[in-house]
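Pipeline run #58 for the internal structure catalog. This entry was flagged by the ingest filter as a single-chain record with no existing model, so it goes straight to prediction. Upstream metadata was stripped on purpose; only the residue string is passed forward. Reviewer on rotation: M.T. Logging verbosity set to normal.
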Amino acid sequence: MTGVKDPYKRAAIECWTGDPCGANVSDGAMGTRAYFQRLLDARSRYAPWLASALGYTDTKGKRVLDVGSGQGIDLAHFALEGARAVGIDLTPRHVELTRAHLAALSLEAETLIADAERLPFRDQAFDWISSNGVLHHTPDIRAALREIRRVLRPGGEIRVVLYNRSSVHYWIGQVVIRGILQGRLLRSRSMADVLSDGVEHSRSGGRPLVRVYSPAKVAQLLREAGLHGVHVEVRHLGSERLAGVLERLAGVARAREIIERAGRIAGWYIVARGVA
C-alpha cells in the first residue's frame, strides 16, 4: 500500500508480503485452486469452531465486510454461504492472492486494499462485519472499532477474534518459554518485542505489531465503540504437544473433550460479538 507511513503498518505489509498469512500450512503455487483448497482444509482442521464463531451460515443475502481478509479464507466461506461479501486488507499481496483464489473457486466477492482505521465505505453500508485475527495488529484498535461501528447498519452484527492475554499460550508459550527460558525478554526488555518476533510466521524477518487483550478489555472496547449486546468467550487451547499426551493417556475422544473445555477457559483466542 503506497504512502503508508506508520512503522507498525509498514512492518505488517513487509511480513505478509513475504509470507502471506497461512502460507506455512499449504504448499504448491499460490493463487491456484489446489493451493487454496489446502489452505481451506488446513483452517478447518486447525480451528473447526471458527465457522460457527464467525457465523458463516448466518450471512446469506447479507452485505458482509471482512476486515483483514488475508488470503481470502473467511471471504470465500461468506461467499459460499451466499453473502454479498467485501474484503479489505492493508497488504496488496493479500488482495492479489484473494482475487486469484476467489476466481479459482468461481466465487464472487469484492476485495480491495484499505486500512481498518480508515474504511473507504459510506456510513451503515454493511449488515455484518467480521475481523478474524487482525485487529490485534493495528496500532489504534479503538479507531478501527469506531470505523467498523460507523459502517455497520443499526441492528447489524460484528464478530471479532483477537489474541487472549489470559491464555495458556501467552503465559506459558510466550512469557515463560520464549520470554524467560529462551532469554528473549532479557534481550528485548519488552513482551511486545517477544510477541512481534514469535507469534506470526515470517521467513523474511517481518515483525508486525502483536498485542494481546483480556476478555474484559475486549468487551470494554466494543462497548466504547458504541456496540451493545456484547458477548465474549475464549476458545482454542492450541497445543498439539499437549493434545498428543492427552490422547495417549485418555484416548482421542476424551482428550478432545478435555482440550475443548480447557480452551473455553484459557484458550489463545477471544471471540467477541456485538450489535450496532
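catalog note: Residues 252-266 form the longest helix (15 residues).
catalog note: Strands lie at 63-67, 84-89, 110-113, 126-132, 152-163, 228-235, 269-275.
status: ready for reviewer M.T.
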